[in-house]
Each structure stands twice: as C-alpha cells, then as structure tokens.
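Handout, section B. The chain below has 354 residues.
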Amino acid sequence: MGRSEMRVVVKLVVVLATIFALQWQITAEKYLSQHKLKSHILQDSIIKKINENPNAGWKADRNSRFSNTTVGEFRRLLGVKPLPHRELQQTPDIYLISYLYDALILCFSFIWWRITSHPDQGHCGSCWAFGAVESLSDRFCVHFGVNISLSVNDLLSCCGFLCGSGCNGGYPIFAWRYLMHHGVVTEECDPYFDTTGCSHPGCEPGYPTPKCVRKCVKGNQMWRASKHYSVSAYRVHSDPHDIMAEVYKNGPVEVSYTVYEDFAHYKSGVYKHVTGDALGGHAVKLIGWGTTVDGEDYWLVANQWNRSWGDDGYFKIRRGTNECGIEGDVVAGLPSTKNLVREFVSDDFEDAVM
C-alpha cells in the first residue's frame, strides 16, 4: 500500500472514530441519571483507582477548582456541541507535514509560551470561544510580534446562533469563521463577563449568555477600531505530524475532545482515560508537544479552569493515539493585519512625541 493510500485509510479511520466518539458523547449525556448529576464530580474512589494503577501514567487529586461542584454543574463547562456530519465533510483539512517534515524530525519537543493570565471560563460553557480567541491571540504574537489579549466576551455574546448557544455551548469551527468575518475586540475593550469564576461554593446558578453591546467599557476606545481578525478558518488534518507542523509553523491551535469523569481529577503526568462516564465535549488551546523520560509522547495543552486546576492550569495528554478524540477535531485560522497598521502608526507617533 502506497503512502497516499495509507493516508486515505488513516483519515477514514479517524473520521469514523470521531463520529463514534460524538455519538457516544450524545448517548452518554442523554442517559446520565438525576442522582448522578447531583453527586460531586470529585470522588475519592476515582482518585484511588488512578493513583494505585501503575499503568495510568498520571496522578489524580482533589482539584480545589471543583471542590463543591456536582457532575451536572461540571457538565455545563463542557460547551462543545457535536458538529453535524455534513459540516465535517464540507470543511477542508490542511496538510503541512511534507512542508516541515525535516524540521520536525529534529524537534522532539516544542512549546509556544506566551505570558498571559490563566483564564477561567467561570460558570459558562464558553470553552469553544476561549479556545478560539486564546489561540488567535497567540498567533498575533507568533506572526506579528504583537502581544495582545482578545475578547472572549465579544465572540461569546455577539456571534449568537451562528456559533451555537453561547454559554450553553457552541461550535469551534464556527467561532473561527466569526473571527474571520467579524473579528473580535480586545479584552480591554470588552472584558469577560464572569469575573467571579468558580471560587465560591457550588458555582450556582450558571450564568446566562451576556448581551452583545458592541461598545467598549472605556469611553476613549472605539469598538470598530479595536477589532482584530483572522484571515481564514480551517480544520487541521488529524495525523499527529500534521498537527505538529501546524503548531510549529503558525502557533497554537484549538482542539476539542471528550471529557470523562476522571479528567476533573487531573493533577500531573500524561492523561489517558482510565475510568468514569463520558460527560461532554470540551475545547482548549494546544500549545506544544513533548516526550516523557519514559518515552511517552504527549500534547501540552492550556485549559481555562484557572491555575488551581491541573498542573498550574495546564495538562498533558497522550499523543498519537487520538486520546479522547483530541486529534480528530483541530481547528485554527491565520491572523489578519487589518487594524494592525493603525496600531503601529499610533505607537510610533506616541514614541516620537515622548
């Protein structure tokens, strides 16, 4: 079998696995009992099962982020809606492995680090928006050297039904299309609405989607002038090397995957699903990859559940096996220079005056 035929077979297997995972996610969410939904997400039995398993490869703990959280409340944070099969077929995949293969052979580990705050999506199922906006913000830094934080709130509140259902979930690829056609303002112009996070007991009630106001909180800033755009929206082919090449060349990407009960307990190591029911789909920002001293390949991912969860807000997950479907739904877009010229001219003028 030739290389091209092998690619077709691999792609078909991944597509079928992704469809199966989405159907399993829908079925699992539908049949969770009310008793289960009202129980606490953190369970000593799960922690024990993982930490006493020599083959687990990761450590579990009682993350304070979810100390008073029920399974039902936790599920609200998992805001990725299953993409219709028709949309999966119509969205083209990007292949980059042949372009960067030689560089990747030498790159056993690679990480995009950028000094940013550790975001917290709070009570809202806005992960689909966070993954897109955080990735695009980083790509402005990668491509143009611009350190900027873009507004999740703009995308969450103003995309409306085009992206899904706001705090009740959305579609990552549609989020990137919104970034391409409408752009988002800066975080300074339109800050995230839920500043409380989930630090208070119970995290109840869940917040409704904020209203789209299209006005900067500071009177000296203009909404349209604060917009930043993507010039494209695409899916990355599910081959791990294609994902690595995309991250290496263009910066972090948004990935979606199925979350199981045990994931809420993650503390360190390379995550693999060990135990617990499927609870829903989650979107995050994938920033790099590496290999442990024991030879296990992993992806390094930034979550938006603040620094009290996981390994200082980050987690590692097994690479190369489509763990929990994380390699089957990778989306991204390239940053646009629109409005950047105005910023550069303004900065140069201020420097000249000073």
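Note. Residues 3-30 form the longest helix (28 residues). Compare this with the example in section A.
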